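Can't attach files on this board, so I'm pasting raw text. These are the components:
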Amino acid sequence: MDLKQLGEFGLIRRISREFSVPAGVTGIGDDCAVLPQQDGLSTLVTTDMLVEGTHFLSSDISPYRLGWKSAAVNISDIAAMGGAPRGSFLAFALPKGLDSTWTDEFVRGYKEASLLSGTPLLGGDTTASPDRISICVTVIGDCPSGREVRRSGARTGDLVCVTGALGDSAGGLRVILDGIPRSADEEALVDRHYRPVPKVAEGQAIAKAGASAMMDISDGIGSDLQHILDASGVGAEIDCKAIPTSAQLRRCAGRHGWDTEALAIDGGEDYELLFTIDPAAVDSPAFPCHVIGRIVDGDSVTWLHSASGRHQGYKHF
Amino acid sequence: MDLKQLGEFGLIRRISREFSVPAGVTGIGDDCAVLPQQDGLSTLVTTDMLVEGTHFLSSDISPYRLGWKSAAVNISDIAAMGGAPRGSFLAFALPKGLDSTWTDEFVRGYKEASLLSGTPLLGGDTTASPDRISICVTVIGDCPSGREVRRSGARTGDLVCVTGALGDSAGGLRVILDGIPRSADEEALVDRHYRPVPKVAEGQAIAKAGASAMMDISDGIGSDLQHILDASGVGAEIDCKAIPTSAQLRRCAGRHGWDTEALAIDGGEDYELLFTIDPAAVDSPAFPCHVIGRIVDGDSVTWLHSASGRHQGYKHF
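---
Top answer:
Structure tokens for the assembled complex are below.
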């Protein structure tokens, strides 16, 4: 069986069943691994690989933006559990002929995204690649033990919420791929695609408010929400009309004939937080909170008021 | 300036000067980053990238051996600071057409190397690559705060020691690359090349004994020792005749006309530990200890009784 047949999640299951995990430790299957320490804090760890030709094309993304994104998406995984990032580790394989201005610009973007949450670069690895650029970023963080918000805690009756507008990043990608001329609206979407902002303070506030489950939206809620449902053993009803979208996205959709709902649900990489929480906790929340549905008995999503029916996220294999 | 001119260490310096590191934290420049916790332990973190075509050829190394090596070399970095590994994170980018038996075999080797030190796999990332396999492993561990052994503590008068025979891995690589027919001796060297054993218990015992500086030997002592000297601001005299080599290596060297000393000094990937320690601490050591020289005032290595003069390690760019 090749990996395309096995699929990303099939492969992860196949690997994770080979390893037993110490008591109290959360291993594979959430945004971060969680390792309780002895001082009331838990260490959070996340890692991500980006490969030229799969995740980016050097002709399409500047090293500055790539650096930004590499840091941001991993810091976002710490945010998605309600943690505080403590440091990042940057490993990359680079072609020997690459000019050092490329790495300077990459590091400039990486640094700017890291400084938004005060995350220092603490280590890494630099090595040569025969051709393509590969980047692997690891971020460690911590949070009070027991307060880390997993994917598995959603309960029937909880609200399903997101921290902000969805679909902008996917809209930005359409602008890039279709070579659409850019007014301020299109530029704003492209910037959201290239420079996502990890919701670190928001994630900590949501965790403090007692969210039952949380993750960041990397593949699109069409598939990301299903991870929460699978881990929690519940279903959800989502009101497609309640999903927040930006004025820029709606204007661009009108201008270029896009399906806003499809971009908001199936489009990934917004890095907003998706969370479930008791209705009483969002009466006057101290964090951005758009209610888009609720958790119900079941095992899948019912999309209410949807024009386009069932939705799928991005498949890696 | 391209990266070949800048060099690996030039690039690292260029990146690390961009980031400030919180007080008490050790960032770039040692085997691991060191983050003190509040409970008297320090968290250690190390990460390494392996790319097909630079670090391995799929035609030359089985997925089982590659999996072993990927885990072992990172666990070795934790050992090199005297720490206990707590968990590993495996990110890889794989071509879509790769058969799942490849990942099964890779994971089998990874698991066997991990189990030597009881290190669980706690997370990672699996993604598609257009062609080459890229692997990035991160290992976290811990050690009592202040007992982590850095590269920077060597003092004039300390002994320079290694935990075991050097050059076997480089000899094994010669066997592979030159297609040399294999008797038991050659097989043993090839196995040392493909299945290095991280010296975790040894590293902890050496740390407990008060070693002043330590690192694992990945590039060969010819260049690795210089890292300790640079970090510590000292020099060293090494007695080339005191460098331990295995009987297998010496027999193979005789058989195939190899320069044993060059393999032992310039050959990397033995993953023995190189450490400096007060002479009084090695009277009856509770760890493997071969004294190969001593730390002196200065800034470089003097190779005594050497047939081949000054030595260089492997350059990544």
